[in-house]
Amino acid sequence: MADEIEIKEIDFRYAPEITAIHRAIMKGNISDSWMQSIELHLRKQDVVGYVAIKDGQVTGYIIGEIKGPSFGLEKSGWIIALESHPNYMGSGIGKALVESIFKYFKQKGVKDIYTALRWDAVDMVSFFISAGFNRSDFINLEKHLDDAVPE
Ligand SMILES: CC(C)(COP(=O)(O)OP(=O)(O)OC[C@H]1O[C@@H](n2cnc3c(N)ncnc32)[C@H](O)[C@@H]1OP(=O)(O)O)[C@@H](O)C(=O)NCCC(=O)NCCS
User: Fold this and answer.
1) Residue 67 maps to which CATH number?
2) Pocket residues for ligand 1 (CB within 6 Å)?
3) Does residue 62 form part of some domain?
4) For residue 136, is it within any domain?
5) Among 44, 66, 80, 119, which is least packed by CB within 10 angstroms?
6) 150 C-alpha to center of ligand 1: Å?
7) Distances (CA, A) of 142 to 34, 65, 109, 139, 145
8) Quick check: is 51 in a domain?
9) Domain count, the chain
10) What is the residue-averaged pLDDT of the chain?
11) Residue 88 three-state SS
């Protein structure tokens, strides 16, 4: 099935199709800020990404970037977003997209690739494990700023 998937470099002109995929996953519940942030990402110079085309339509996308030196690493590849359309999940789109970005990172001399997931996104965790990811040496810390913080 994977041979029916065409991979193209991402472009901000794909924003409507990408938004449609996210809307289908979120069952219509998407915010304006999500749409603004995706457009912003797609217009950035240092962002890498691909879309998957199947049956003549955009059925998935991946966005990543190279950071460094940062987090104590000289150079690292980050996967910021990855989604495939619910009608096409399980048909090799996610795999084709990560393989494309792995190839890009490798060409750029990146050896270590990271992503961050919600702990309860079990489908994403399973997918990334099947793509060869493991628990990293990092931990995430969080602090919520509220009204109690003096200005
Ligand atoms: C996770 C996701 C990107 C995977 O994409 P996909 O196109 O369905 O994945 P593929 O068909 O390429 O599957 C590749 C591998 O991952 C595994 N996999 C994919 N989804 C899985 C799941 N839910 N559970 C277990 N394994 C899974 C497949 O079994 C396959 O393994 P194999 O290569 O050994 O056969 C996609 O399902 C998705 O977009 N999910 C929704 C994400 C989401 O909720 N986003 C909102 C966050 S804001």
Assistant:
1) 3.40.630.30
2) 25, 60, 82-84, 89-95, 123-124, 126-127, 130
3) yes
4) no
5) 119
6) 43
7) 20, 22, 31, 10, 10
8) yes
9) 1
10) 92
11) helix
